[in-house]
Amino acid sequence: MKKKVVVLLVIAFILALVWFLVLSPIFTFRQNEKMVENAAREYFELNSRELPTGERVKTVSLKTLYYNKFLEKDIYVPFQRKNCSLDDSWVKVKRVDGKYEYYTYLDCGIIKSSIDAKGPEIRLKGNTTMSLSLGEEYQELGVSSVVDDVDGNLKVDDVVIKGSVDTSKIGNYEITYTAFDHLSNKTTVTRTVRVVQKLYQTVKKQLNDSTNYVGYPENNYLRLSNMLFRIYGVDDNKNVIIVADEDVTNVNYSKIDKWLKYYYDHLNKKTKKMIVPSKYCNMTIDEANLGTKECSSYTNNKKVYIPSVVEVNKAQGTDNNFMKTRTMSWVSNMQDAKKAYLTRDVFYY
Questions:
Q1: H/E element holding 189?
Q2: Which of 242, 223, 225 is nearest to 233 (CA)?
Q3: CA dihedral 337, 338, 339, 344 (to 10 degrees)
Q4: In this model, does residue 335 exceed pLDDT 60?
């Protein structure tokens, strides 16, 4: 008999908990939804001019209903003395088949109405952040797709695009893209367009008709990946060519690809994103063409490379040559890799 009593007490306790923690809050929440909907109906009865026409949707927020005294009591989050969201809770009204339909959404923390309150997802063509050179023409890339959880695929042409970009002035510009679903749930995404004076433009302007610096200029330094570089010049693809300001290493030519990968792997992530693969000169040099400024042989594209004698020669000016390192050694490899490397000359600067 005692066991039965204990079991009944336990069951009663569990049922009480279920009622108190689950059923009662949900029951109260549904009552609150109905109360708010009735308040909204009364609001639109007194403000009939605000009722929507056609396929439009009108919204009245919980805050408006409170401040205009259409609600007699506050609506709280379950188990808290905290009001449900005044701004994110609303009632929407739409004309359907000649009658006004009301859609109530309450945001009460852990409990929210099941009505659709989420705007569609907007996917842009291109990146949400992009950079343009000063004076470069801005071309609107537009929207790739608009998808709603309830309505499915929406028309891309219905997206409202606002904003402009003045590429004659350096600065950040915002283009906004706004879409609505059938209940006028709104989504807005922003594309930031940065108009900048790109390094290529600055270097190109300073070089005039030249492709590289010569001599020993004082203003072609650049710090990248916590190292000091010098700007060599620009190429035909609007890339800036830089070279380490100090000696980096001594390396056997047969091991150069391994060393270049090692060097690249130790650059920081930000620097790696800016590096453009390029081919570099690896022509054979002898006494007859030590002073050449024309390259006759190139490698495949590589992330980083070692400047050739051609680049060093092109940088030669009357006031020295910034491309010449403090220590320069010329080595040649014998026909057989098993044989020793021979040092031809060593120059100290």
A1: strand 186-196
A2: 242
A3: 40
A4: no
* Nearest partner of 240 among 221, 225, 266, judged by Cα: 221
How far is the C-alpha of 13 from the C-alpha of 72, rounded, in Å? 34
Burial (Cβ within 10 Å: 0-12, 13-18, ≥19) of residue 311: buried
Query: Would you say residue 248 has pLDDT above 90?
Result: no
Interatomic CA distance for residues 63 and 75, integer angstroms? 11
* Residue entry with tokens 């594209």: 301
Domains of the chain: 2-112 (no CATH), 121-197 (2.60.40.10), 211-348 (no CATH)
Kindly report, residue by residue over 76-123, the tens digit of the pLDDT.
Answer: 887 777 889 999 999 999 999 989 999 999 999 888 999 999 999 999
164, 172 contact by CB (below 8 A): no
Classify 335 as helix, strand or coil. coil
Residue 61's pLDDT is 94
For the residues 320-337, what does the mean pLDDT come to?
A: 65
Are 328 and 343 in contact by the 8 Å Cβ rule? The answer is no
Going from the C-alpha of 284 to that of each of 289, 295, 298, 309, 333, the distances in angstroms are 9, 9, 11, 10, 12
- Spatial separation of the C-alpha atoms in residues 302 and 125, rounded to whole Å: 30
| CA–CA distance, 300 with 305 (Å, rounded to integer) | 11
Q: At 257, is the secondary structure helix, strand, or coil?
A: helix
Q: Which amino acid is at 44?
A: F
Residue 222: how many other CB atoms lie within 10 Å: 15
User: 68 by DSSP, 3-state: which?
Assistant: coil
The set of residues, in sequence order, having a beta carbon less than 8 Å from that of 204 and lying 6+ positions away, is 234
Residue 184 — left, alpha, or beta (φ > 0 → left; ψ -120 to 50 → alpha)?
left
The C-alpha atoms of residue 36 and residue 72 are separated, in whole angstroms, by 10
Return the ∠ at Cα 75 (arms to 73 and 78), rounded to 5°. Answer: 140
Which amino acid belongs to residue 238? K
C-alpha pair distances (Å), 245 with each of 37, 195, 324, 326: 72, 30, 10, 10
Residue that the structure tokens 């809770």 belong to: 89
